[in-house]
């Protein structure tokens, strides 16, 4: 009994040691958007609606590349757990080169396609203008963001995630200062928020690279882009990319329906969604910590430790889901006026955030198990499960939209319906898939076999 207690306590300490500093990196992009939302919201609902479209495009594009961090974390952790330190570091370098290449290509695509993408999302007239300018300015920082993702995955695998917190704090402070200067001091509006975000993204990247450079030198790791390693890194993340793409399809479908429901619903959706993205990263930090710990245990082929970690990661996700859910609901109730000058919009934001807050304990469980399965490299299963969830969600979402339109439902009812479908259908199907998979040992033995 005492031995089990010691194992559990050790697992909790290890999880906290990775999850707490990892949170800093995870909240960077959402907190940039949240800051932009709060400040741009002081301009008016049209500017806020434009930011909603633009930031959705940026967050979707960047979010699709989360596999750069997740696959690197899993790979480095497994190799470290197996005692192959240099192989793990070399895999991390390959991940960063892959991130740079993808980042440059993605940046060029978004700058040139900002108008048609924003128009396709439903933006028109002044809302379209704001969305386009935000995409074109904020996307200039994407190469830095993606390199930071890969670098953070490497640091988590090395069990040295502390620097991620300091890089995120630095980026957030710079973003706030530049937002105020550019949006209000220089009167650049939505464009100012995009430029501030771009600069903050590059600052975080430079901090992380400066920290990693001496680690790589000490271990005599080549910084040259080895094509075979980069291909391996891309192959590891292919299914994880599909998984992330399916999640983003569900999110983009939600914002498109919000756009169709009108400016008031879209503006309130932006405030709730940016807050949700920020709050959710507290739970994602637990999942990311679980990735590194599970990956290391698999590398060591320690099955009892894997079972112990699974239990503790689940409990941590649910427990923190309760804390975050209560805080989210309270924040929405008292802080909604910070996001808009319209009292009716603030009321919709407050009610919607209470509705969303109820589901956070389940979110915590879902994201914790996501981390476990990603840490085991179970990407193919996650890709299939998330694709199914996205398809079901889109179908139900369209039905809900048509029903609320037919009923001439007011904006408050439309907004609440939007969030209920997202949480019950999309998150519900995803979570059920994770629970069924994680409580069987198939993924454990498959991961160990692949490592061999």
TrEMBL record:
Signal peptide extent: none
Coiled coil: none
Keyword Membrane: yes
Entry membrane topology: Multi-pass membrane protein
Keyword check for Transmembrane: yes
Locations listed in the record: Membrane
Family: Belongs to the multi antimicrobial extrusion (MATE) (TC 2.A.66.1) family.
PANTHER family assigned: PROTEIN DETOXIFICATION 44, CHLOROPLASTIC, PROTEIN DETOXIFICATION 44, CHLOROPLASTIC-RELATED
Name the record gives this protein: MATE family efflux transporter
Lineage: Bacteria, Bacillati, Actinomycetota, Actinomycetes, Bifidobacteriales
């Amino acid at each position: 009994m005492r031995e089990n207690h010691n194992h559990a306590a050790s697992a909790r300490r290890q999880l906290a040691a990775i999850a707490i500093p990892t949170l800093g990196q995870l909240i960077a992009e959402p907190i940039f958007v949240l800051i932009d939302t709060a400040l741009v919201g002081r301009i008016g609902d049209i500017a806020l609606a434009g930011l909603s479209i633009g930031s959705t495009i940026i967050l979707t594009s960047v979010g699709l590349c989360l596999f750069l961090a997740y696959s690197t974390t899993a790979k480095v952790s497994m190799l470290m757990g197996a005692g192959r330190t240099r192989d793990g570091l070399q895999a991390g370098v390959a991940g960063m080169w892959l991130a740079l290449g993808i980042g440059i290509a993605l940046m060029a695509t978004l700058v040139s396609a900002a108008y048609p993408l924003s128009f396709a999302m439903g933006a028109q007239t002044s809302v379209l203008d704001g969305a386009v300018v935000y995409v074109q300015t904020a996307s200039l920082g994407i190469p830095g963001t993606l390199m930071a993702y890969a670098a953070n995955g490497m640091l988590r695998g090395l069990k040295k995630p502390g620097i991620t917190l300091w890089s995120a704090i630095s980026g957030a402070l710079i973003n706030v200062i530049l937002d105020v200067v550019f949006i209000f001091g220089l009167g650049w509006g939505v464009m100012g928020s995009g430029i501030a975000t771009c600069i903050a993204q590059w600052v975080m990247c430079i901090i992380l690279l400066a920290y990693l450079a001496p680690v790589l030198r000490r271990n005599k790791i080549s910084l040259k882009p080895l094509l075979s390693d980069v291909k391996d890194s891309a192959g590891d993340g292919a299914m994880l990319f599909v998984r992330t793409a399916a999640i983003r399809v569900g999110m983009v479908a939600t914002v498109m329906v919000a756009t169709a429901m009108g400016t008031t619903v879209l503006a309130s959706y932006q405030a709730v969604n940016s807050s949700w993205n920020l709050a959710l990263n507290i739970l994602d930090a637990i999942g990311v910590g679980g990735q590194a710990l599970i990956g290391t245990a698999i590398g060591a082929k320690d099955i009892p430790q894997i079972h112990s970690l699974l239990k503790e990661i689940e409990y941590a996700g649910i427990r923190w889901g309760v804390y975050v859910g209560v805080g989210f609901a309270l924040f929405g109730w008292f802080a909604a006026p910070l996001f808009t000058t319209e009292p009716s919009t603030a009321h919709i934001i407050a009610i919607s955030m209470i509705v969303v807050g109820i589901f956070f304990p389940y979110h915590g469980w879902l994201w914790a198990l996501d981390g476990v399965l990603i840490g085991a490299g179970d990407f193919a299963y996650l890709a299939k499960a998330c694709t199914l969830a996205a398809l079901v969600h889109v179908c139900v979402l369209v039905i809900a939209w048509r029903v609320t339109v037919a009923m001439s439902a007011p904006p408050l009812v439309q907004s609440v319906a939007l969030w209920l479908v997202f949480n019950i259908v999309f998150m519900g199907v995803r979570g059920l898939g994770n629970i069924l998979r994680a409580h069987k040992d198939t993924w454990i033995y498959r991961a160990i076999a692949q490592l061999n």
